[in-house]
Amino acid sequence: MALRRVYSEIKGKKLTELPGYLKSTFSMETVKTSVKKGLDNYNDKYIQTSSVDPLLHICFYGMGFSYLVALPKERRHLEHQQHAKEHGGH
User: Fold this and answer.
1) 20-to-23, 25, 31 alpha-carbon distances in Å
2) Which residues lie closer than 8 Å to 90 by C-beta, 6 or more apart?
3) Which residues, other chains included, contact 47 with Cβ-Cβ below 8 Å and sequence gap of 6+?
4) Please, are residues 29 and 35 in contact by the beta-carbon 8 Å criterion?
5) How far apart are CA 62 and CA 56, in angstroms?
6) Residues with Cβ < 8 Å from 83, sequence gap 6 or more?
7) How do residues 19-78 score in pLDDT, each as one tens digit?
8) Which of 26, 22, 4, 24 is closest to 13 using CA atoms?
9) Which domain of life is it from (predicted)?
10) b/e map of 1-21 (b: 16 or more CB within 10 Å)?
């Protein structure tokens, strides 16, 4: 939803106005404030209510992150295996 807002604001600007808008919108202070607000909202919604959802978030997002980290190595392995089949190697 935030990306939709940024897109709608960017859509009406000229190209010369864009760097100034992006610099002010994505400054370190703005990003810090947004992250802090998001963490506070997460804390209020899940942690303070003693919900089991944070545990599920850690499990599922950890599994997804692990998969993405291992993906390049797995692809290299599969490419090597395919190359070996084509050329009669190991």
Assistant:
1) 5, 9, 16
2) 84
3) 54
4) no
5) 9
6) 89
7) 998 888 889 999 999 999 999 999 999 999 999 999 999 999 999 999 999 999 999 999
8) 22
9) Eukaryota
10) eeeeeeeeeeeeeeeeeeeee
Tokens representing residue 61 in the block: 């997002």
**Distance, CA of 45 to CA of 54 (rounded, Å):** 10
| Lookup result for tokens 């190595």 | 73
E-only strand ranges, 17-88: none
Ordered DSSP codes for 35-89: HHHHHHHHIIIIITTT-SHHHHHHHHHHHHHHHHHHHHHHHHHHHHHHHHHHHT-
Determine the pLDDT at residue 1: 59
SS3 4: helix
Cα distances (Å, whole numbers) of residue 22 to 26, 30, 38? 6, 11, 20
Q: Dig out the tokens for 23 from the structure.
A: 């610099």
pLDDT (tens digit, 9 = 90+) per residue, 75-90? 999 999 999 999 886 6
